[in-house]
Specification:
alpha+beta, Outer membrane efflux proteins (OEP), membrane, TolC family protein, transmembrane
């Protein structure tokens, strides 16, 4: 007895802990989109990439600042033999003994003209930042769309689970009625077995629906960055609306195209940087030096200022191929933009057709529900009057259940296709 009570207590504690670990939460579709684009692991990686590009742009702006260097040197040496050639006014030389040298230098170089290299390098970093930002937005839109698909798939699984649960209650009552009639000799045992078999099939379908809902729930939690055991409440699609007038609106420029155009700007900036090598670099320079040779000489206040010029002669014969590479990159980006535009046009056309098809299909599903309901009523009357058999009644019941499940799937599919169209036409707002 003690073992039995101990096992029961452990079971209760385990059940309570598991229930506590499962946090229940209700999410609207707008919240799902917001979480997918801000809290998911993929979204955080995309944000980090944009931040890195921004920091590289800030780093590039520092190239406009002067270069400053300070150095100091101490040298220990042996005592050299020094023959000083400077006339001293006497016939005797000096006995100079030194074994230490101190040297300090400060130099500052300020670029004045670089042929546009600095300016275009900064512009390249800025355009690269823009390209990364647009690419991140495009990726986040796809993340949000994946979340929408999972959210609607969860709705479909939950609806199937609830509808099957309702049918199980009705099938249990039907099986109980059949059993009573079989015991009273009104129906054959075979009819009772058919009703019980249908009840068993419903229960199997119910377990499968639970499994499907749990799997999709877990996938959605992972995508949204929620605790993995969060249980999402039953979804209500009343507020999950997409704008149907989008079919008549003009298309907006997709973020993929904006990213490619920014990449083209980067390539143009790099081409200008490469061409800048043909021009000289002019810079202002200044410095300060101090020198002390022990027992020999001390130099202080040795300041200097001036203008310097440098020119890389090798660029005259090395730069041509670099320019050709940059020009080829520009040409490739033009081809990619054209190819992406064609792909987007195809996606828009397909998305519009899918929306129209889903609307027509959903209308037919609504008609089918009414037809299945009326069919079940007629078959039930015939069965009660002995005109229809058990097979007809059970089949009509299955058809009624399937029509309700199809309608739930059709409603979710229509919303899903609208969001596909929003993404394809550039109207998917993830903010």
């Amino acid at each position: 007895m003690k073992i039995k009570y101990w096992s029961t207590a452990c079971l209760l504690v385990t059940t309570s802990l598991f229930s506590y670990a499962q946090e229940k939460r209700h999410l609207e579709l707008e919240e799902v989109i917001q979480l997918a684009t801000t809290q998911s692991s993929n979204a955080k990686v995309l944000d980090a990439q944009v931040k890195t590009s921004e920091l590289k742009y800030e780093e590039a702006k520092d190239s406009r600042l002067p270069e400053s260097k300070i150095s100091g040197t101490y040298l220990a040496m042996n005592s050299p033999t020094i023959d000083l050639k400077i006339p001293t006014g006497s016939g005797e030389g000096f006995g100079i003994s030194t074994n230490q040298i101190f040297l300090g230098q400060l130099s500052i170089n300020m670029p004045l003209y670089t042929g546009g290299k600095i300016k275009n390098s900064i512009k390249s970093a800025e355009d690269s930042w823009k390209a990364t930002a647009y690419e991140s937005l495009a990726s986040k839109e796809q993340l949000a769309l994946n979340a929408v698909h999972l959210y609607l798939a969860l709705y479909q699984a939950q609806q199937a689970r609830e509808l099957i649960a309702e049918n199980i209650k009705k099938a249990e009552q039907q099986a109980a009625d059949f059993k009573a009639m079989e015991q009273n000799g009104i129906i054959a045992r075979n009819d009772l077995l058919k009703a019980e078999l249908q009840l068993s099939n419903y229960k199997v379908s119910y377990q499968e629906a639970i499994k499907n809902a749990n799997v999709i729930n877990y996938q959605l939690n992972t995508l949204l960055g929620l605790p993995e055991y969060t249980q999402l409440d039953d979804i209500n699609l009343a507020r999950a609306k997409a704008v149907e007038t989008i079919l008549d609106n003009e298309n907006e420029e997709r973020n993929e195209i904006k990213s490619l155009q920014a990449q083209k700007d980067v390539a143009q900036d790099q081409l200008r940087v490469t061409k800048a090598a043909y021009y000289p670099t002019i810079f202002a320079t200044g410095g300060y030096a101090a020198l002390q040779v022990q027992n020999l000489v001390t130099v202080t206040n040795a300041a200097n200022i001036g203008i310097g010029l440098s020119y890389d002669i090798g660029s005259l014969y090395k730069n041509k191929k670099k320019i050709r590479v940059s020009q080829q990159q520009l040409s490739s980006l033009d081809d990619r933009i054209a190819m992406t535009n064609d792909k987007i046009k195809t996606e828009i056309n397909e998305a519009k057709e899918n929306v129209l098809f889903a609307k027509k299909k959903n209308n037919l599903y609504e008609e089918a529900v009414d037809q299945a309901k009326e069919n079940y009523r007629i078959v039930k009357d015939k069965y009660d009057n002995g005109v229809a058999d058990t097979d007809d009644l059970l089949e009509a019941d299955v058809q009624q259940l399937q029509s309700k499940i199809n309608l739930a799937i059709g409603e979710a599919t229509l919303i899903e296709k609208y969001y596909d169209l929003l993404l394809a036409t550039g109207h998917f707002n993830t903010k």
